[in-house]
């Protein structure tokens, strides 16, 4: 401070929270300053007890017998700030000076009127500037109560450096505001004319100020300036009256110079923003938006910006107008301070349940998303953002979907390949068509960022669902998404999944969809044709010479079907086959192809038929336990023969209807089995699980295949092309159920009774066959016939049980 004060000021950092602070240091052992130690102790005592927004904020102190360390908020002396403002425009500088003087006058009025004290040291060295540009009153070394007989002001005042140059004439101890008012007048001259000496009024005989001594003091303030320097304390203007004149509360020349200041008005509006009406808020926000560039940078960054962020915490309709202004003002924040001043408070707003705030954040996400890192997005934004997918307001749901594309590069693999896709699967079922369409578009944009496994599980089911959407633009979006993600599919997926899933759109009712489908088909076919060129001509082993000729017409195809199928089987029987009879051999079971996976989970029941009642009993078969170790029952012979006859009938007519595939003219038949689709699965909206739950137990290993000897190998019933009953159970009845809990005996071997739900062959096959079979029945007749079969079956089983009990009796 160049010897103008007893303190040495240092910048520091608070250890516990890294807050920037200033440290005022006094050492009584330096230059024999022990005589001014009472001034330092008085400054510490007054600064601790006086708290006001415009007074230097006290934080902590370290005191010894000869040294004092006072810790305050981070500030700089006014003299340093004045030198910085010298090169700025005169209008901006005058506006800033009046705003700062307004804060000092408020502080002096508080000290004089509320505290009934006199500051006694009002000059540029006693005023400090906060990081927001606000002026703070400090230097309380001489602050004394007017009623104190041993006031420091009058006993140690002469020890303050250069104080006598600012001392007022005829000062009286009884008026606490008289001394401060006179020093305030000299302060006005010093800040507006920093390069000029003090006016002649400061020297004896203290003449009244003239226009020649005004300098850069504004004309509106000059009349009040002269009244502050009146030599007589009784007629001198007090700081409180000077404040009233500046606020326009007092009539006279030059009133309202504080009230008309733009910075003063903005600060007043920001302080009462939460209590203001919507019209007042709109006016303030419009003023800030239009004039933000003309404000002092420190005022914008540290005063306006924190006030607006604090107002955002209250939410409401004004949030949509405040957030863009916060982003705009944040552009002037230094990069080192952007995270703490702008980004941190804005990210916290995602936790707010206010819909206005959430909508504003999503709308303006592009303006600050590049400043976010992955940890912030995953830990602080995503947990709150994902709640928007299930919001009851459709606008929030749609804005949430649209915002995801901006955050994709900053999402973790776990969120991207699991949590996000589960939300998008539900969004494809949204009641709003626009949300379903945008979800399809978003999935297409996400495709390059997904893992290969996720691409195969998600993309085709998701886009296939969009192709079946009732909204025309959703169907177009599905086709365009398939085209955009063609690099994610290999040739087999294109030919086996993509093209079959989109071919029906070629005849869509909307021309827009049809045209897009044609373009998609052309793109896919070019890709397949390019792949086919690289494929070998055949996968048949080189030893085979059979080749099929290509046909190009319907007649040629019909002729080709008239011939026998190619066969690579030898014309000579193997030696093992020569030793067996045709009755002993087993019909080979054709393995299911990929297209028959719907039947792969249904295993045909095994039927063991023996024509020799006295033959050996085969070993026990697990699963549905049959009583092989029981005494043979002759009552079961007819039932075994009946099952054999039913199995033979199935083999003779495996497709039904006497060899005809279907009667296309039978309009009365029931075709519901062909028209209905399998019920959807509730667990996964896209048909497959995205990622296994790490907490869930692994699936049980498949059961090992049963091995049977050729002599006891059961004859498997052939798979039927159509179900034996209208409904197929999801699983076979348990072997320990009440219906099949009792073992059944047979004179020759174990026989497995087919469950009633799969459909029993009728007791009298000839009667039904003569009547045309079940295909000629109506739904009601079929139901009646099936009920009759089940009842007959129950009666037969009951008879077998009773017979078994009679045989077991001695």
Query: Using only CA atoms, what is the Rg?
Result: 48 Å
Strand order of the largest sheet: 1-2-4-3
Q: Structural class per helix/strand content?
A: mainly alpha
> Which consecutive residue ranges, at least 5 long each, have pLDDT under 50?
564-571, 589-637, 650-683, 691-698, 703-771
Number of helices: 27
Mean pLDDT across residues: 75
Helix content: 40-55%
Counted beta strands: 11
Largest sheet: 4 strands, antiparallel
First-residue to last-residue Cα separation: 124 Å
Apparent shape: elongated
Q: Strand-residue fraction?
A: 5-15%
GO biological process, one term: tRNA export from nucleus
GO molecular function, one term: ATP binding
Protein name: Protein kinase domain-containing protein
InterPro entries: ARM-like, ARM-type_fold, CIK-Related_Protein, Kinase-like_dom_sf, Prot_kinase_dom
Q: Would you kindly provide a written description of the structure presented here, covering whatever features stand out?
A:
Helices cover about 45% and strands about 5% of the residues. It contains 27 helices and 11 strands. The protein has helices at about 35-50, 80-85, 90-115, 150-155, 175-190, 220-230, 240-245, 260-270, 280-290, 295-310, 320-330, 335-350, 355-365, 375-385, 395-405, 415-425, 435-445, 450-465, 470-485, 490-500, 510-535, 555-560, 575-580, 635-650, 670-675, 765-770, 780-810; strands at about 10-15, 20-25, 60-65, 65-75, 75, 115-120, 125-130, 135, 145, 605, 715. Strands 1-2-4-3 form a 4-stranded antiparallel sheet, covered by helices on one side. The chain has a 3-stranded antiparallel sheet with strand order 5-7-8. Helix 3 runs antiparallel to helix 5, helix 10 (about 295-310) runs antiparallel to helix 11 (about 320-330) and helix 10 (about 295-310) runs parallel beside helix 12. Mean pLDDT is about 75; it is low at about 565-570, about 590-635, about 650-685, about 690-700 and about 705-770.
């Amino acid at each position: 401070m160049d010897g103008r004060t007893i303190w040495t000021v240092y910048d520091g950092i608070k250890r516990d929270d890294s807050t920037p602070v200033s440290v005022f240091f006094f050492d009584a052992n330096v230059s024999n300053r022990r005589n001014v130690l009472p001034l330092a102790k008085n400054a510490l005592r007054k600064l601790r007890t006086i708290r006001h927004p415009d007074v230097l904020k006290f934080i902590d102190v370290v005191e010894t017998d000869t040294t004092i360390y006072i810790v305050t908020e981070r500030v700089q002396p006014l003299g340093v700030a004045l030198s910085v403002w010298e090169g700025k425009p005169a209008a901006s500088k005058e506006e800033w000076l009046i705003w700062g003087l307004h804060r000092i006058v408020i502080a002096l009025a508080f000290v004089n009127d509320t505290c009934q004290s006199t500051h006694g040291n009002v000059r540029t060295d006693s005023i400090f500037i906060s990081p927001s540009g606000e002026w703070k009153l400090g230097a309380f070394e001489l602050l004394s109560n007017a009623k104190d007989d041993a006031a420091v002001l009058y006993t140690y005042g002469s020890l303050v450096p250069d104080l006598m140059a600012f001392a007022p004439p005829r000062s009286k101890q009884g008026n606490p505001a008289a001394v401060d008012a006179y020093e305030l007048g000299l302060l006005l001259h010093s800040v507006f004319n920093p390069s000029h000496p003090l006016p002649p009024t400061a020297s004896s005989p203290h003449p009244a100020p003239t226009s020649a001594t005004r300098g850069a003091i504004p004309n509106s303030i000059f009349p009040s300036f002269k009244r502050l320097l009146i030599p007589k304390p009784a007629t001198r203007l007090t700081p409180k009256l000077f404040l009233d004149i500046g606020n326009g509360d007092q009539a006279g020349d030059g009133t309202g110079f504080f009230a008309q200041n733009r910075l003063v008005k903005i600060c007043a509006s920001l302080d009462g923003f939460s209590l203001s009406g919507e019209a007042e808020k709109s006016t303030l926000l419009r003023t800030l938006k239009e004039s933000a560039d003309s404000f002092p940078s420190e005022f914008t960054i540290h005063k306006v910006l924190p006030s607006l962020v604090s107002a955002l915490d209250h939410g409401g309709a004004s949030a949509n107008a405040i957030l863009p202004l916060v982003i705009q003002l944040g552009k002037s924040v230094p990069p080192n301070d952007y995270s703490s001043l702008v980004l941190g408070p804005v990210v916290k707003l995602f936790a707010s349940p206010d819909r206005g705030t959430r909508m504003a954040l999503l709308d303006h996400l592009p303006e600050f998303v590049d400043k976010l890192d992955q940890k912030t997005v995953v830990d602080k934004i995503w947990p709150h953002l994902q709640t928007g997918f299930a919001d009851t307001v459709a606008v929030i749901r749609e804005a949430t979907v649209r915002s995801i594309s901006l955050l994709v590069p900053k999402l973790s693999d776990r969120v991207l390949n699991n949590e996000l896709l589960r939300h998008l699967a539900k969004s494809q079922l949204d009641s709003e068509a626009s949300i379903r369409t945008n979800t399809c578009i978003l999935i297409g944009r996400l495709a390059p960022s997904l893992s290969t496994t996720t691409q195969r599980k998600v993309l085709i089911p998701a886009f296939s669902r969009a192709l079946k959407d009732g909204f025309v633009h959703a169907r177009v979006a599905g086709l365009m998404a398939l085209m955009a993600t063609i690099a994610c599919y290999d040739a087999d997926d294109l030919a086996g999944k993509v093209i079959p899933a989109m071919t029906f759109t070629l005849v869509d009712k909307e021309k827009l969809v049809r045209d897009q489908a044609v373009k998609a088909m052309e793109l896919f076919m070019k890709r397949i044709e390019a792949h086919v060129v690289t494929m070998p001509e055949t996968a048949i082993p080189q030893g085979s010479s059979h080749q099929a000729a290509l046909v190009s017409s319907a007649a040629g195809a019909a002729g080709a079907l008239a011939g026998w199928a190619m066969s690579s089987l030898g014309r000579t029987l193997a030696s093992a086959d020569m030793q067996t009879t045709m009755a002993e051999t087993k019909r080979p079971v054709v393995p299911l192809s990929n297209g028959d996976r719907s039947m792969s989970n249904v295993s045909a029941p095994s039927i063991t038929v023996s024509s020799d009642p006295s033959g050996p009993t085969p070993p026990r078969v697990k699963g549905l336990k049959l009583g092989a170790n029981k005494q043979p029952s002759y009552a079961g012979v007819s039932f075994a023969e009946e099952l054999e006859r039913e199995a033979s009938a199935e083999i003779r007519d495996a497709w039904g209807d006497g060899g005809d595939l279907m009667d296309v003219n039978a309009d009365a038949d029931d075709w519901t089995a062909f028209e209905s689709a399998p019920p959807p699965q509730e667990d996964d909206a896209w048909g497959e699980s995205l990622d296994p739950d790490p907490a869930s137990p692994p699936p049980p290993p498949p059961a090992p295949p049963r091995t049977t000897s050729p002599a006891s190998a059961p004859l498997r019933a052939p798979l039927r092309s159509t179900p034996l009953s209208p409904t197929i159970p999801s699983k076979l009845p348990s072997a320990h159920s009440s219906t099949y809990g009792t073992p059944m005996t047979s004179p020759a071997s174990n026989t497995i009774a087919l469950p009633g739900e799969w459909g029993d062959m009728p007791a009298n096959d000839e009667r039904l066959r003569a009547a045309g079979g079940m295909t000629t029945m109506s739904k009601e007749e079929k139901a009646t016939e099936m009920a009759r079969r089940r009842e007959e079956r129950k009666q037969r089983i009951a008879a077998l049980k009773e017979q078994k009990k009679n045989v077991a009796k001695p």
